[in-house]
């Protein structure tokens, strides 16, 4: 009996010590609203605009605070100083990718966006190397974008000035550019495969920005219930089938001495490491990496372009001023190029202001601390999820006076020259900054200048009546549906 008493006392002490340890760690975490049992703080957030909810909490708890999604603590960083300190000054410690259960179910920790550790480092390093070999940041990719922009102009001309929804046409450009890099081919704009591919990605964005996905990410057990997450998985199955078909075509025609595109480079690396059981270059990793690149390359750029056109419809005086600059610097007959950007400060400022104002990914992709750290006097255990509010940086009142107003002067100095800003973080920052940032910047500038070189944007309603409020503002900010007419210049 004495032995059982001793064991009972020992077990009780261990339980008490465990509870005390958890309480101690909890006390060292940043402050935050008291979580409700089981659900945490989720019911205290506005699912239609989480960014606004975070701003209100930051006013009460400061730039670093803790929220509980379910029973899991997540540290939120709000404002430029806190975000910069984490993502740039202490980049390595905050370089982990936090959990995103609905996507984790798809990616299985593979790819370049949702992977971690050595797998992430190897896949990212390899992807950047291949993209550079394929001409990223050089004339090669610029020429591809220029050619695709001309195809877009031709497609727009076929509308004959009739009202149209620009969503599909704008998505064709980034889709074909990334397709050229990965598959070494593009699609005609009337190709049914292109239409299906773009529809899949547009639908994914809509699903990921719904309240249901917030619930799913908080309570992954919902995986076994009916819900929009099943639509997402069904879309991925269709996308995976398409990718596998392309990979099979490449396997049948592969020349190891003459890689044509991203898939070829990856297949060659797979062959070199086929005897390495720990190799990260597997068929599964190839599929998810391609899916990552398409998701990032199509959705973000096309959504930003679409939102940009809506803002220009709302502000025709800004469109007119861009056209004046295009006429002065480029003219009507020469196609725009990236060298023109340095001589077009106003257009460059408008492109930056569109990205700032749109605030495409308000709370960034989740990060994770890679080890136990102390941050601003608080203890954050290894593996803790980190949310960085990009909205709080892009809408900083000191850096961007009257941030709720769409105003290109946010990026212009008193002399009308383009003005850079450290607060411009639409692509995030640090070690997890978007791999395709350079590509997206090229596409946005060249597509906008090509459109306004050839067309005047005509709204179907009085510009004063246009509502630019997003239709969804969850994972990604989605603009409302709209139509416009492209009137030839």
Description:
With 489 residues, the chain is of the alpha+beta class. 52% of the residues lie in helices and 9% in strands. The protein has 16 helices and 11 strands. The strands form 4 sheets. The chain has a 5-stranded mixed beta sheet with strand order 1-2-7-4-3. A hairpin with a 2-residue loop joins strand 1 and strand 2 (72-78). Helix 12 (283-314) packs across helix 14. The protein starts with a helix and ends with a strand.
Structural key phrases:
489 residues, five-stranded mixed sheet, iron ion binding, alpha+beta, 9% strand, 11 strands, Cytochrome P450
Summarize the helix and strand pattern as letters: HHEEHEHHHHHHHHHHHEEEEHHEEEE
User: What kind of assembly state do the chains in view correspond to?
Assistant: single chain
In DSSP terms, counting alpha (H) and pi (I) runs of 4 or more, how many helices? Answer: 16
Distance between the termini: 96 Å
Q: Could you tell me the radius of gyration in angstroms?
A: 24 Å
**For the residues shown, what is the average pLDDT?**
91
Structural class by secondary-structure content: alpha+beta
Major sheet: 5 strands, mixed
Helix content range: 40-55%
User: What's the count of strands?
Assistant: 11
Structural shape: globular
Spans of at least 5 consecutive residues with low confidence: 15-25
How large a portion of the residues is in β-strands, by DSSP E? Answer: 5-15%
Largest sheet, spatial ordering of strands: 1-2-7-4-3
